[in-house]
Structure formats: structure tokens, C-alpha cells
Amino acid sequence: MSGAINYISCALLWIALLFRLPDLARRRIDPSLRAIVAVLGFASLCFLFGAPPTVALINRLTGVPNIAAPLTYAAITAYSAALLVLIACWRDGPTMRRTTRKWIYGYAVVLAGIAVLFAAGSPAEERRTDFDTYFATTPWVAEMIVLYLLAHLTAVTVSATWALRWAREKEVRQRPWLRASLLTIGTGTVLSAGYSVSKLAAVGARWSGRDWPQLGISIPPLFAGLGALLTVTGVLLPLAGHHFSSWGDFVRLAPLDAVLDPVLKDRALRLERPRSPFLWATWRRSTILNGLREIETLFDRGLYDHVVEAEFRRLRERGGRRGRSVTAHELATSAAWAATIAAAAQQSIGPAEPSSEPAPLALPRNPRMLVLIADAIRRSERESHYAATDPARAGSA
Fold it and tell me: In whole angstroms, what separates CA 233 from the centre of its chain?
């Protein structure tokens, strides 16, 4: 792998790391967030230290021939351990402390072993690209090479097994972004195993008197690069999924925002939209809650109950619910809330008179329910449009 590709990969990882550092500053005690930052940081060091120009620079600045090799091996080992810890954090949650502690201690021993064996071997001739195969028969250095390769192979094998097995479980299949993340990590770690397997094969060939330079020099970086790319992508997918879902909620909440717009303008309740698009969904949700609180006393319990009963009756006539992800109860209550909020918003423009119903309605605050109410408003507007233009289509909408 050329130095340019290494540096580009490292730069991209640093950009991803910069996006996560503010979260780490706010939630320092979050173990999974610390593990994500560690995975990104150590992965970037693997690419940085593995670039031939960096190898030459480190060796020259330190005055120690081949010192870049154990540094690269240490970065690969630490990256492998961080990935194991991350998957354990996602899987086991609060109960993962003992598991992660064992892996951290185990790989700390591996790191110490790499340092001790390199110092004992003292390889004097600088090798920038073929260190593993060139020193495969050198006492102590050969043991160091095998140690880091076995540690890497163990980590990626366990990570792949955990990720792919967990992705098949029922609770994960219901969370598409997490499942996509685990499948991507599993695929990436399987490919990463090709790095250590090909290196071990090249080292074994040297022990038997053969020389397989392609297997030891050209092929492993391809496995390492593609595997790391997929693995890091899988690590970042839950964050991307969160933002995509957030932007989706921002768009889906628009009909509810529009219904409340007269109230928000009349009472000067609309907040200024933040510049960051990552905060738009939170901004729209907060604005909607401001409007709902303003008209809460105008909610008509009788209208709500009437729409709930009518919606349940219509759902029964149509054979139950519309989709697997939304229950009949959620469809009925969201439709009732949509009608109740629209009526209260219209009533609020002018003299405000509280509803005469003795049992007030509790303000809907659940983010999912707000989105379902907005969807119900959109369906109602679509059916009203069809009723005006195509009565036959309105009856089947």
C-alpha cells in the first residue's frame, strides 16, 4: 500500500475522530464512546506508522533502526483490542466490565512482549517494507512477529464471531442500523484476518527455506486496508443511522409543525433554527412542544374519544393495522391526536376558552408519538385531497 493511500486513510479517520471528540468531552464516562474513539485513533496510527515515508522518518529521528516496526505492531495490537472492547460494550452493556478488563490486560501483556522481544532482538539493518519476512528467522524478532500476528488474528476472529452471531439475533434484526453495523464489522474483520494469515504464511515459508515476497509484502496491505475500511465504517454506522433517523424525523414532523404554525407565530413561540443540521430535529421537536403546551387546555376529550373509536372501527373493516412497525392502537391514537391538535390550534386563534370536558388529555411528549401524529396529519391531508379530486381513490387510501 503506497504512502499516499495510507495518509489519505489516516486523514479520513482523523476527520471522523474530530466529530467524536466533542461527544467524548461531554460523556467521558461512556465506555462505548471511549472505545469508538480508541478504535478510530489506533486505526489511524496503523495507517500512519505503516506508510514507508513515516517508517523512514521515525527510524531517522529516533536513531534506532526499525523502531517503526514495533510501533506499527503496537498500534495494530491496540486497535484489535479496542475493537474487541467496543463490541463487548455494545453487546453486554453495564455487565461488560469484567470481559473488557480481561481483554485489556491480555493485550497490554502482548504490547509489553512486543517491546521486550524487539529490544532483545535488536535488528540492526533497516527494512521499511519487508521487515516481517526479512527477520522471520532472527531470534527474538521472529517471536515478536508471531506474537503480534497471533494477537491480531485472535482479535479479528473473536470480533467477527461476536458481530456476525449477534447480527442474527431477533432483537438486533429489529434495529436495522445496528444490524448493518454488525454485519459490516463482521465482514471487515473477516477480511482483516487475511492480513495476519498471509503474513503468517509468508513467515512460515521463510522458516522452510522458501521466499514468498508477494504473500508477505503485497497481499497483506490489501486485506488490512479493505478490512479496516469496512470495520471503521461499521463502527460509525450507528452514528450515521442516528443522524439519518434524526433528519427523517425532521422531515416527517413538518405537517405537525405546519398545523401549529399559526399558534407559534401568534404567540411568538417559534425558536430560531440552529445552524447545525444535526440539531434540526431537536429544534423542530422543541418548537412543536412549545406550541402544544400553549394549546393544551383547549384539547377536546370528546373529539379525541370519537376519533379513536372511529379509527379502530375503520381499521377493523380494513383488516387490522397498516404495517408491522405501527400497531393499531398507535394508528388510532395518533389519528385522534391529529384531529384534536388541529381543532385546538384553530380554536386558539381568537378568544381562548378551555375545553369543557372534565377529564383533560395528557400532552403527547414521546418523540415517536409526535412523528406518528405528523404522519396521521399527512394521511388526513392526502385523503382530503383525494376526496376533492378522486372520490373513488379517497375511499381506498
Answer: 8
Q: What is the pTM of this model?
A: 0.74
Alpha helix stretches (DSSP H) within the chain:
3-26, 31-50, 52-62, 68-92, 97-121, 131-134, 141-167, 170-173, 176-207, 213, 219-252, 254-266, 280-294, 301-317, 328-348, 367-389, 391-396
Matching residue, cell 395528557 = 362
User: Do residues 74 and 114 make contact, with C-beta atoms less than 8 angstroms apart?
Assistant: yes
Amino acid 370 reads L
Map out the domains of the chain with their CATH numbers: 3-237 (1.20.1070), 253-396 (no CATH)
Cβ distance 255 to 374 under 8 Å? yes
Identity (one letter) of the amino acid at 193? A
The region that residue 146 occupies, defined by phi over 0 for left and psi between -120 and 50 for alpha, beta otherwise, is alpha
Ramachandran sector of residue 319 (left: φ over 0; alpha: ψ -120 to 50; beta: rest): left
pLDDT in tens, 146-203: 999 999 999 999 999 999 999 888 888 778 888 999 999 999 999 999 999 999 999 9
List, for residues 15-28, the tens digit of each pLDDT value: 888 888 887 878 77
Contact 336, 308 (CB under 8 A): yes
Beta carbons of 367 and 292 less than 8 angstroms apart: no
Which 3 state secondary structure label does DSSP give 326? Answer: strand
